[in-house]
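Memo to structure team: turn this sequence into structure tokens by end of day. - J.P.
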Amino acid sequence: MDTEITITLSNGKRRKLKSPDTLETIDGRRKAYFVMNNLQVFIGYTDGVVDEDGDFCITWKSIALTGKVLPHGRLLGWAYVNTKRAKK
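Reply from structure team:
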């Protein structure tokens, strides 16, 4: 991502989006926002794996069997819901 994009959510929180190219580095145990190029926002978990069709899957719980498939090519960026990792 060449430019830095910051979004303001309806709850007033601001997040700087990470590049779609960094999706593979995401922590699958942390909930994240996924912003698409039509400005639609999805919230969930992913392991960051993009399949051969160019899609990645998000789930609504950290361990789930069902989820939603999103096209990686339309991903504008992503950000963690909580900016800091929870303490173990």
